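U., I forgot to send this yesterday:
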Amino acid sequence: MANEDQIFGRLELLMGAETVERIGQKRVIIFGVGGVGSWCAESLVRSGIRHLTIVDSDRVCITNINRQLMATTKTVGQVKVDVLKERLLSINPQAEITALQKIFTQDTADEFEIGSYDYIIDAIDSLKDKALLILMATRTKAKFISSMGAALKLDPTRIKITEFWKVQGDPLARALRKKFKQMGEYPKRKFKCVYSDELISGGKDETVCGTVVHITAIFGFMLASLVIRDNVSEP
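Result:
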């Protein structure tokens, strides 16, 4: 079995052993491991994160196969976080992966102890639950990063990173701002988002929107990049 020195040798060449060691000590939690969150989890583990909690209540369904990392014809019906955990441990068996088949809601929010993490990553679809996570996460000392909508997009060159209040052209960000205004409650501090200002018209059927993996995966990779780059020492 390969050891971590062998697995992360190329990372050390790029970032230095001290940085890789620092990354390995960070604790990260991802809420939602679908088309965005699953790729974020894989990228983090391949980049040296050893302490990762993945949260999702769903099971793999056949419509996930076009964009979700762990979704294949063989995993349909299985618990998403369990399948993903198995894959992540096959990448680094020494990683500490906690798989929680739960959903983040008003009723369950306190169960996750989000203040104990160094990084909180939001890849939640539900507007209500996403807004709650943003409000709670920005009250903690953890670095918080959020994904805006990855559906109805085809052009990867339109994907960007910016501060939440500077996001333009994204319906989910607009809906969140409206919800915060209605609630009369706002995030306690600024946070970065991955988003795209592209919007394909006609790409949905009632409540279901079209998605493609080269967009959702890049969203996930960019979320992971914010964690990794945050730990790279200045030259």
